[in-house]
Amino acid sequence: MIEGDQQVAPDPEHPFVKDPQAWKRSLQFQEMLFTKGPVVCDDIEQDPRLGAEFREYLMNRGRKKFLAIPMFVLGEVRGFIGIQHVEQGAYRPEEIELAQALAHHVMMATHAAELAEQRRHAVLLEERTRMARDIHDTLAQGFTGVIIQLDTSVEALRDEEPEEAAKHIRQARELARESLTEARRSVHALRPQALEKATFADALRAIITNTTAGTSLRSDFQLKGQPRDLQPAVEENLLHIGQEALSNALKHACATRFQARLSFDSDAVRLELRDNGKGFVVDSANGGGIGLIGMSERADQIGARLAVTSKPGRGTKIIAVSPYQQLVMK
User: Fold this and answer.
1) pLDDT tens for each residue of 85-137
2) Within 13 Å, how many C-alpha atoms sit on residue 239's CB side?
């Protein structure tokens, strides 16, 4: 509340403060909602629209007249500005216009604050989604590789092959370290380490080779066309889509064969991923254990087309096609 030129706390004795719903029962404010225009009260003592409690409150504080100006946001009344005066006399048209201009500025400031808060929440939600997706793509997929390597080492020990078992344990330890590093980088929104050390094609090839090493899943990587420089976001998201497809083949599909083909066509880069696993009904998959939602979100981020084809007993094929984007030189 503003009194004179000073901001003061709301008066706890104000009828609308004591009962926040009271203004809805006031004839003046019902008129304001109906006409969507200002309510002018030139004489508080004589105006029949005033309720007894509100009239008494105003008169006890020496008020003689008041204005109520509605504030609209996107066509809805979101509140009003009440202006009270201790001077007698009717309001002049220019005073009413000035009050309406003030209400308009307050409305714009209020709407801007609401939009800023919505943007803040949207940014927070986007960051939470990114972190959840990245954690899934690093820790969850990394642990899949670790578990597979440890299971393979147990089988080697049963077959009395200690050297083979030790090799898989070392591989599991390395995968765990890499996953932890990637999780830390993800928290800081850093580029995947694999892409810092190698080209996109080599990074994808290495991840497939290292993850399937010593497992029953036989992998094949093919590179078609002349590799081109891609936007960092394109490389990162396609890499994660490839990781997710590989992880699904290992965890869920019971596949024995995984094929990855990276093609640099004339107008787009194409990533094709296939396995010969048990497949699933695409329309009934919710992505909870398959990661389809995450792959779809990553494709959307880079404007790529994502197609998932699968049938029970027929394996799964995933194709992501990302049109080339002009690199921004810094």
Assistant:
1) 888 889 888 988 888 888 888 888 877 888 888 888 776 677 676 666 666 66
2) 26
**Are 318 and 282 spatial neighbours (Cβ–Cβ below 8 Å)?**
no
222-227 contacts: CB < 8 A, separation 24 or more? 222/259, 222/260, 222/261, 222/262, 223/261, 223/262, 223/263, 224/261, 224/262, 224/263, 224/264, 225/263, 225/264, 225/265, 226/264, 227/199, 227/200, 227/201, 227/264
**Tokens in use for 166?**
């030790």
Domain spans of the chain? 2-91, 217-330
The full length of the chain comes to 330
pTM greater than 0.90 (yes/no)? no
Q: How far is residue 206's CA from residue 146's CA, in Å, rounded to a whole number? A: 16
CA–CA distance, 219 with 257 (Å, rounded to integer): 6
Name the fold adopted by 2-91: Beta-Lactamase (3.30.450)
pLDDT exceeds cutoff 70 at 140: no
Top CATH class of 217-330 equals alpha beta
Which amino acid is residue 248, in one-letter code?
N
Distances (CA, A) of 37 to 99, 100, 123, 129, 178: 12, 9, 37, 44, 65
Q: What is the distance between the alpha carbons of residues 274 and 65, in angstroms, rounded to a whole number?
A: 78
